[in-house]
Q: What sequence folds into this?
């Protein structure tokens, strides 16, 4: 079963480690009046995630399934969740809705514009359009303002079966992962363009306390500093590439 860790109040990380890839796939459940799942996960992980979620909420009560960009680890299992949760609505960026999600999804998505807020009851999530960060025209991020949690998708990607939550500096592990990716057939999975630095600065200025990462440890601490470090590392890695 997925490994469950509460990384902030009522924010649960459901993690599945895939040894062949030496990579964790993390999914986040926000327990609230209308529970929100961030990252639907791969279709092949649905049964395991469903089993884990049953220990936290009744999965039928999911209110929202949200994601950053249209890729299988973000959205593959979406329709499985929509089938078991009759009120659940898909949530993504406006570009994600019109370009991909509404054709794929059993039900139309809420297409969030920049700065729009989604409320799950107690928690409020502000959406940001971050085209091509980490990758994909449709990419976006959401920020929970009460606990200052940034759901940052593939940013801060780290390999290994690492700890669920860390206050150690993530920079070295992230730089090592980027270096490994650049030497593999999956090279250039992110880019660094003239707008990348500005988007990362905007995210840093949110001063997140928690970074909810899809692959690797989540982070608790000075999120602003971590994102500034990431921007420097991404420029060195991908601008040069
Ligand atoms: Fe991705
Ligand atoms: Fe991912």
A:
């Amino acid at each position: 079963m997925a490994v469950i860790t509460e990384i902030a109040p009522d924010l649960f990380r459901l993690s599945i480690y895939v040894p062949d890839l030496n990579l964790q796939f993390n999914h986040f459940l926000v327990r609230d009046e209308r529970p929100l799942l961030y990252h639907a996960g791969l279709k092949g992980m649905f049964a395991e995630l469903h089993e884990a979620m049953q220990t936290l909420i009744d999965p039928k009560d999911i209110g929202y399934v949200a994601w950053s960009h249209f890729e299988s680890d973000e959205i593959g299992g979406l329709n499985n969740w929509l089938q078991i949760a009759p009120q659940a609505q898909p949530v993504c960026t406006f570009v994600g809705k019109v370009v991909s999600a509404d054709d794929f999804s059993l039900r139309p998505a809420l297409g969030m514009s920049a700065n729009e807020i989604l409320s799950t009851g107690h928690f409020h999530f502000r959406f940001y359009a971050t085209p091509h960060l980490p990758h994909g025209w449709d990419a976006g991020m959401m920020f929970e303002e009460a606990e200052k949690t940034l759901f940052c998708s593939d940013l801060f990607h780290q390999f290994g079966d690492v700890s669920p939550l860390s206050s150690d500096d993530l920079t070295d592990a992230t730089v090592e992962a980027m270096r490994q990716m650049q030497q593999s057939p999956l090279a250039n999975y992110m880019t660094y363009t003239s707008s990348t630095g500005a988007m990362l600065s905007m995210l840093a200025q949110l001063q997140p306390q928690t970074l909810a990462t899809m692959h690797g440890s989540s982070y608790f601490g000075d999120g602003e500093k971590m994102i500034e470090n990431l921007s420097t590392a991404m420029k060195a890695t991908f601008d040069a590439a």
User: Anything to note?
Assistant: The helical segments are 46-53, 72-75, 78-84, 94-104, 171-182, 196-204, 223-239. The domain at 3-239 is CATH 3.60.15.10 (Metallo-beta-lactamase; Chain A). The chain has a mean pLDDT of 97. DSSP finds seven helices and 14 strands in the chain.
